[in-house]
Amino acid sequence: MTKRTANITIRDIAREADVSVATVSRYLNQNAYVSPSLSERIQKVMDRLDYVPQATARQLATSKNNTIGLLVPNMQNNFFAALLAGIEQEVSKHNFNLLVAIGDTNQNQRNQFSLGSHNTDGLLIFADSLTDEQIAQLYDRQLPMVLIHKTSTSDLNIPTVTIENKSATRKLINHLIEVHNRTQILLVRGSEQQEDSYWREVGFKDALADHDIAFDENLTIRGSFDRDIAYNAMKAFLENPTHPEFDAVFCGDDDAAIGIYDALKEKNVQIPEEVSVVGFDDTQIAPFLTPPLTTVMAPTEEVGRSAAKQLLCLLNGRNPVPVTLHATEIVLRQSCGCSIHENNSQNQGGGFYKKVNVLP
Amino acid sequence: MTKRTANITIRDIAREADVSVATVSRYLNQNAYVSPSLSERIQKVMDRLDYVPQATARQLATSKNNTIGLLVPNMQNNFFAALLAGIEQEVSKHNFNLLVAIGDTNQNQRNQFSLGSHNTDGLLIFADSLTDEQIAQLYDRQLPMVLIHKTSTSDLNIPTVTIENKSATRKLINHLIEVHNRTQILLVRGSEQQEDSYWREVGFKDALADHDIAFDENLTIRGSFDRDIAYNAMKAFLENPTHPEFDAVFCGDDDAAIGIYDALKEKNVQIPEEVSVVGFDDTQIAPFLTPPLTTVMAPTEEVGRSAAKQLLCLLNGRNPVPVTLHATEIVLRQSCGCSIHENNSQNQGGGFYKKVNVLP
DNA sequence: CTGAAAGCGCTTACAG
DNA sequence: CTGAAAGCGCTTACAG
Fold it and tell me: Which one of A187, A223, B109, B234 is most buried, counting C-beta atoms within 10 A?
């Protein structure tokens, strides 16, 4: 066992500098005037002894952890890295630490979360990492929280940071209908609890309604935001001899789109000539699919940053914004049927717009 | 300020259950026999008061943080999510917490790291997140550490978990030479400090030597493991009217390959007809490039898991493996010139081998 | 401006 | 098997 050498403590510093521990503490935290001569003596000793204050002791004394926790359901989906990057940036800027837990993994027997008020000052909760009951439980314990891509049930008062799903989807589907004359659009549903799926579906239906197209339950499949599930669902759909005709697919998200592409290609369905395909998120991979995926750009890193900001707000006793809704924009690439007149077909990973020439 | 309600403590439990705090503590930690009747009383009170032990107090008393820290230089590169997933999995399995810090962000004035013995029991350090001096400094403080994709300087004794770079690269380049008759292969160098780059370059040279091809310094460019840097370097190379001819590019890693693709396509260089391109890592994006990228599969999630394992080993006083070298394998897709006889060209994100038909 | 002392909420020898 | 008490390393009223 790597026994840690007896730590040098604030008491050692105090003794060597011939001051009280209180003074050392004050110098350390810069929260009270300490005379220059003492300051200098203290600093010298700290340098000499290579002193680092013990976070735990400070936390216990102040009952602040200086740490926030992030809870995500898994790490599959492509945009997690972006979310984390945004969060970490903001969190470390304010000298907080970031504890990360992946929901799936932490199904403790005792229904006790690995992250909570015992080890964090507050939690960032992504989508359905936690059930509503679990969230309510933490809320009862007064744990500061911010929800990401999910709004809190109406009786609770938890700030939310999410993206505009509905109108972007509507615009995207309208593009399919108006520009590419698609009318039989297959909807790949996300998981039911997922709020993003819900609003995307609403936007989808709005677009149909805009053009007096009846929503057809037969033109839906259950896909979740998962590549393989989407692949299998699409495959099953295509292999059903009585499946209705369709001329486009709205995938729910980009990861699902990957599975949809595979299933379609396997059956030699041409994208976009026979069937337009569109996704949502504009993850890193979208511009690299063949054909490049038309989708909706979600500013995920920004979402991460602003969620962290809201939580920090809460921790500082300032009033957070109840709902932060980040704007999204459709990104036209070729999978909808649009064509491109530049030849550097890949140099735009970041979700930038392309100069497109719309072809019906 | 969301004042936390006065916490219920072990003392409350003890009082209500009419036992001593020592007994509650023992029951909590299951580290000494507590009679069934007391146990029951304690459990009841804990349930009733909804008690959660305060991690900080426990940490201070035991001088264990039950937390390990992960340091990464940035989050750009695609494989970070996989690494993190592997680490979190292992760490949470052992009921440890995971603190994440991104190196770039934390350049504190005082040369004090946000992660260290003051808030973690040990550190997982990815590649060159820290300088050798910084590592040495932490080592002096006896902080348990494991290096990932980097070996420790010979005077220190820090376990390393990394991948086999050299022989895989050699095999990859030999494939280019032997199967596709490439002889003028451009080397896109990674950053100098990066050990992966170093060994890949050695493997590259070995392959040339295998075929008595002289290594040509003019056939190298400085690329780093970064898409944009690689793009610009490749572009500059191509625009130099006196640039030497080349018939293949070894990109250093997959991210760089993306930039190389862009630069090549911009100049209408056909991949792989005119120039073969190969990468390293087999990140999620590799099979989706056009043409799909031939590369080397690095088991990143596994690397994460095993790094965490070694650190946990260290923390438990058991002897860690000094160097864990994970095997890698070349993955043939089309960018080298191989062709494929299946039509589902994308349904293999995970880095599986394809059934390939080798064409010279 | 500085210090002595109590306290944060646990754990763990030491007794019995 | 259980309890009383000291201690982990800080912070922060309270005095002076």
Answer: A223
Q: Number of folded domains in chain A?
A: 2
Range of the domain at B225: 166-299+327-358
CB B282 within 8 A of CB B78: no
Distance CA B292, CA B241 (A): 29
Residue A100 within any structural domain of the chain = no
Q: Rounded to whole angstroms, how far apart are CA atoms A98 and A70? A: 7
Would you say residue B46 lies in a domain? no
Closest residue to A92, CB basis, from B63, B78, B106? B106
Domain assignment present for residue A95? The answer is no
Whether CB of B106 is under 7 Å from strand D: the answer is no
Please give the mean pLDDT across all residues of chain B.
87
Q: What's the start-to-end Cα distance of chain B, in Å?
A: 70
Q: Which residues of chain A have a CB within 8 Å of the CB of B260?
A: none
Instruction: Give the number of A-B residue pairs with CB atoms closer than 8 Å.
Output: 183
Chain D footprint bases within 7 A of protein beta carbons: 1-5, 7-13
pLDDT digits (tens, 9 = 90+) for A65-87: 999 999 998 887 767 889 999 99
The CATH number of residue B335's host domain is 3.40.50.2300
Q: Is residue B215 part of a domain?
A: yes
pTM: 0.88
